[in-house]
Amino acid sequence: MSIARRGRSLAVSGFLLAGAVGIISSTQTWLVVDRADAGEAIAVAGAAALPLLAPLSLAVLALGAALSIAAPIVRLVFAVLAGAAAVLLGWSSLQLFIARPVSAVSSTVTDKTGLAGGDALTDVIGAVTPTAWPALALAGWVLLLATAVLVLLTWRGWKAGGRRYRTDADIATGERGDGAVDAVESWDDLSRGTDPTR
Predict the structure, then answer these.
(1) Which residues touch 107 (CB under 8 Å, ≥6 apart)?
(2) How far is the C-alpha of 29 from the C-alpha of 144, rounded, in Å?
């Protein structure tokens, strides 16, 4: 079976897996702040380091669930939205490795120490060390971007959705959807007295 024919199941699986990784990682420790004043190290969760992490991950999960029954043009919209989310989250996650992410830890450090303001935080923040979770999340965003590209390349070859997802008007006019109909639907049509070969 070609990738084009399996496009829908691969796309839904990719969206759901990437979204799940994002949600799970949002609750885990992404960054560890070693304090310059020799105080106890501060753990920063993914949702605190990257505020868009949890909401966009939930959106990706919703896109994955809806993609399984989406109309052709909606598939393209979903692919563009997922690609944009992957780029945004991927770039933001990558910044945690490239630069010293003081802004990503500032709210958590303020909560723990009561200190606020750039100078005060700079004085108390020694080193900021990322854990494995940002790298795992980054891999999830790469998967999401690849899956969005897969949707853009294969959406025309996807089978039509089941009869239950079509409107009464489509059924009455005999609209078959946007692709090949599987054998189960053909048998259902025969059971109803409709010739599926017409």
Answers:
(1) 48
(2) 22
At CA 32, angle to CA 55 and CA 97, rounded to 5?
Answer: 70
**Model's pTM, two decimal places?**
0.73
**Structural contact between residues 38 and 167, judged by C-beta atoms closer than 8 angstroms:** no
Is beta strand 29-35 parallel, antiparallel or unpaired with respect to 125-130? Answer: antiparallel
CA distance 181 to 159: 6
Encode pLDDT of 16-64 as tens digits. 999 999 999 999 999 998 887 777 888 999 999 999 999 999 999 999 9
Domains, in order of start, for the chain = 7-158 (1.20.140), 161-198 (no CATH)
